[in-house]
Amino acid sequence: MDPLAELLHRQHGVLSRAQALRGGLQEHDLRRRIRRREWVVVHPGVYVDHTGPLTTDQRHWAAVLAMAPAALSHASALALALGTAPPGVMHVMVDRDRTVAAPPGVVRHRVAGFETKVLAAASPPRQRLEEAVLDVAAEAPRDLDAVAVLCEVVGARRTTPARVRAALDARSRLARRALLAGVLEDLETGACSVLEQGYLRRVERAHGLPAAGRQVRASGRGSVHRDVEYRPWGLVVELDGRAFHTSVRDRARDLDRDLAAAVAGRDTVRLGWGQVYAGSCATATAIGTLLRRRGWPGEVTACAACAR
Q1: Which residues contact 205 (CB under 8 A, 6 or more apart)?
Q2: Where are the beta strands (DSSP E) in 101-210?
Q3: Strand 14-16 relative to strand 224-230, pairing
Q4: Residue 285: which of 268, 228, 293, 143 has the closest Cα?
Q5: Fewer CB atoms near the end CB (10 Å): N or C, the chain?
Q6: CA–CA distances in Å: residue 141 to residues 133, 144, 306
Q7: Which candidate, 170, 189, 295, 163, places its Cα nearest to that of 242?
Q8: Cα–Cα distance measured from residue 153 to residue 161, given in angstroms and rounded to the nearest whole number
């Protein structure tokens, strides 16, 4: 196989003008192939070797070659790494010092340290997974969406919390840094610190619920701690921040805690990320109702988000 044919095969039938000239073609060779419809112009200086619709792989290659040196990034790199559906628009990153224009349907990102953040040998070149997940999480519309991105990538076993943390530590500026760092810690240790803080701020304090005890030591098999306990009213709230159960032992420990609370005359409510971050107002109303049934004399108050 000649070098150009091999290159076309490796790049799913897409190549750039610069690659064709380096491969030995002359300008008149390019014009002839385009005139005969052997090659079709996708973007200025980028060609595909057929006349039909482009595949997703070809669209990726065409966008990267149109802005070369460049790499798929953000949601596009993340989808490619996870094998999920690509986003509606492509995301491509270039070095911060370049001002190359993005072709239609492509969002350009200029980044510092371009070469250190790219898997250049990937097909096509793409942003390292740890860098991509941080960018997608930082730009997510909601905190819950940012958390979900981290959980999905780690849960798919495509990277580790430690690797993402290393990428985070190397960033001097990033939106949601504290939240992302806390979620990574949760994923590393199984602790629910971010979720507990979210419950405290978004559910309890924002809606005038009584102050609860936290990490309350209780009797049970081994060392048992209840995440949130409204002791005067016999209600326990357990916050399950794990992205996935790692073993039957984890589930058994949860049930042991619930059983110990029931023996002590306390009811247990188990909440997750959705109830705390996406549905905090409804959750506060429900917890307030349960507390009032048990004798709490207060009232749930509306927060700023309740009216929206």
Answers
A1: none
A2: 106-111, 118-119, 126-127
A3: unpaired
A4: 293
A5: C
A6: 14, 9, 18
A7: 189
A8: 9
Bridge partners of 236, per DSSP, are 229, 268
DSSP-assigned letter for residue 208: T
Residue 230: both structure tokens together = 């409204």
- The one-character DSSP state at 84 is P
Task: Write out pLDDT tens, residues 132-172.
Answer: 999 999 999 998 889 889 988 887 888 999 999 999 999 98
CB 23 within 8 A of CB 4: yes
| CA–CA gap between residue 294 and residue 32 (Å, rounded) | 84
Provide the CA 93 distance to its chain's centre, in angstroms: 18
Are the C-beta atoms of residues 76 and 136 closer than 8 Å to each other? no
Measured distance CA(233)–CA(150) in Å, rounded:
36
Place of tokens 């700023």: 304
| Token duo for residue 94 | 């270039």
264 pLDDT more than 80:
no
Sheet strands (E) in the chain: 14-16, 40-43, 46-48, 71-72, 90-95, 106-111, 118-119, 126-127, 213-218, 224-230, 235-239, 267-271
Q: How far is CA 117 from CA 4, 35, 45, 59, in A?
A: 28, 39, 26, 22
Inform me whether the pLDDT recorded for 78 exceeds 80.
yes
- 126-127 and 118-119 strand pairing: antiparallel
